[in-house]
Amino acid sequence: CPSSSGKPNHADILLVNLQYVSEVEIINDRTETPPPLASLNVSKLANKARTEKEEKMSQAYAISAGVSLEGQQLFQTIHKTIKDCKWQEKNIVVMEEVVIAPPPPWVLFLPSAPLSLPLSLPLSLQVEKHFRDVESQKVLQRSQAQQTQKDTSLSS
């Protein structure tokens, strides 16, 4: 049957857990042959697999180098918008231009190259926003934990 989205080469798929099926009834057999499956773009899949492998290796490198969880999260935040970033020991290097170094607060080091200046402001804003978001998440978690503790003590 055609996709509910109406897109060609798409189909709706319904997964059924067969552990909960007690009986199957065939209403009618299909008489025509199904349409051929869409061809896969093998090079696109290979590129995706290679990229995923590189990202996992980068993450493994960071862990083995002793990078803090905070640093790993910062790297992932930056990597979402700027793919050209990598680890250099415990430092994050962005576009071969800007180095972000630990310990907290993480510091941006700019080389004298003028190309890095347009990159520095948005990157520093992104780093600041990341740490504000992390801090607000910690505050929210603490407040939820305190509320749970209050609720538990009141119900006792």
Automatic annotation (TrEMBL):
PROSITE patterns per the UniProt record, alphabetical: AD (PS52001)
InterPro entries noted in UniProt: AD, Lsm12-like, LSM12_ABD
Domain AD positions: 38-135
A Pfam short name: AD
Protein origin, superkingdom: Eukaryota
The protein, known as: LSM12 protein
Species this protein is from: Dicaeum eximium
